[in-house]
Write a structure and sequence with these properties.
The structure is a single chain. This protein has 339 residues and is an alpha/beta fold. The protein has 2 domains: 217 residues, D-Maltodextrin-Binding Protein, domain 2, CATH 3.40.190; 96 residues, Periplasmic binding protein-like II (D-Maltodextrin-Binding Protein, domain 2, 3-Layer(aba) Sandwich), CATH 3.40.190.10. The protein has 14 helices and 14 strands. The chain has a 5-stranded mixed β-sheet, with helices on both faces. Strands 4-1-5 form a 3-stranded parallel β-sheet. A hairpin with a 5-residue loop joins β2 and β3. α3 packs across α9 and α9 crosses α13. It is globular, with a radius of gyration of 22 Å. The chain binds glutathione. Glutathione (GSH) binds next to α7, β11, α8 and β13. Glutathione binds next to α7, β11, α8 and β13.
Length: 339
């Protein structure tokens, strides 16, 4: 009896050790493969979207590129895997992707029940509604009895139910797995309103037949902190993704851009020196080269550069920085120091 117990205990210990060793392997696997596998959307302009040449662009894509630059000194060593909202979590759990960077809301249940770690918030968002301008609707509170289109496998349906219940309004939901199906249904007039994250409404609006015919209503009915997700249990990997993101935000705060980063190597500011790998061993601390952040900034840019190029006011998505401004400029984007 005792022997069995010891044997079982030993087996469990070996399993636990192997599990831990395996769990800490992501960086090694990525290096061996020579490529980062990044889970993105199937097409969310400004966040993750292939352009006419098939090159992936967007704010979430910039984060994949930053991680690739930090590891390989090359922002292009990435395989992008397009995932629907419904399939994204199994793809991360099964190891099909190393990192999920796809407008994913950080919630307590996802963080604690799915075996994941949310490592940063690269876009603070909230759920909203879009309606055809010609409907004359000016507030979500006028949507009593409306048919609302949305995507399945998202945080959206529960927020929608909560909002209509709280406001004692009836509604009907029409939900699809693919965002393109939601767009088609809404564009054909099957629904009175379209609901999802407000940033995604602005993004998907660019894909409608006449984007200018639709307006996003002022109500923000939920908190949708969107950010990159990794598997729980590989702390080093989580650190790499988190600090790749923080490097972009710190670079913005310190005024370091892709254009001036070489010039900035001459700066006497100790924070800039540490960030660019000229002082200290900050890259080594996460298993990378000390030029990790230099490579991110040089090849991908700082957070502001990535934001303005993908979703900013001059892009078709057209989102002002708003709450995603730096904390020094009235927003909540704040990165702990590289120190
Ligand atoms: N933030 C929400 C929603 C995420 C989501 O999937 N949004 C849709 C917007 S309609 C999207 O990104 N669609 C693009 C695609 O599936 O390619 C969540 O994490 O559940």
């Amino acid at each position: 009896m005792k022997t069995v117990t010891y044997a079982a205990a030993a087996a469990a210990a070996v399993l636990a050790l192997c599990g831990a060793a395996q769990a800490q392997q992501t960086l090694e696997n990525v290096k061996k493969r020579g490529q980062l596998v990044c889970g993105v959307s199937q097409g969310n302009p400004g966040f993750s979207n292939p352009d006419a040449q098939g090159n992936w662009t967007g704010l979430d894509v910039a984060l994949c590129r930053a991680v690739s630059a930090a590891i390989f000194a090359d922002a292009k060593r990435i395989k992008f895997v397009p995932l629907s909202a419904k399939d994204r979590f199994t793809a991360l759990q099964s190891g099909e992707v190393d990192l999920l960077s796809r407008t994913t809301t950080w919630t307590m249940s996802r963080d604690t029940q799915l075996g994941f770690d949310f490592v940063a918030v690269n876009f603070y968002d909230g759920q909203g509604f879009m309606v055809p301008k010609k409907s004359g609707v000016k507030s979500a509170l006028e949507l009593k009895g409306a048919t609302v289109c949305t995507a399945t496998g998202t945080t959206t349906e529960l927020n929608l139910a909560d909002y209509f219940r709280a406001n004692k309004m009836e509604y009907k939901v029409v939900a699809f797995e693919k965002t393109d199906e939601v767009n088609a249904a809404y564009d054909s007039g099957r629904c009175d309103a379209y609901t999802t994250d407000r940033s995604s409404l602005a993004s998907q609006r660019t894909k409608l037949k006449v984007p200018g015919d639709h307006v996003i209503l002022p109500e923000v009915i939920s908190k949708e902190p969107l950010g990159p997700v990794v598997r729980h249990g590989d702390a080093n990997w989580g650190d790499i993704v988190r600090w790749s993101y923080f490097a972009m935000v710190n670079a913005e705060e310190l005024g370091v851009t892709s254009k001036n980063v070489d010039e900035m190597k001459k700066s006497s500011n100790p924070e800039i020196k540490r960030m660019l790998g000229l002082e200290g061993d900050f890259g080594k601390m996460i298993g990378l080269d000390n030029a990790w952040a230099y490579n991110i900034i040089k090849q991908v840019g700082n957070y502001d550069e990535a934001y303005e190029a993908s979703v900013g006011p001059k892009t078709p998505v057209g989102l002002p920085r708003g709450v995603n401004a730096l904390w020094t400029k009235g927003g909540v984007q704040y990165a702990p120091p590289i120190r």
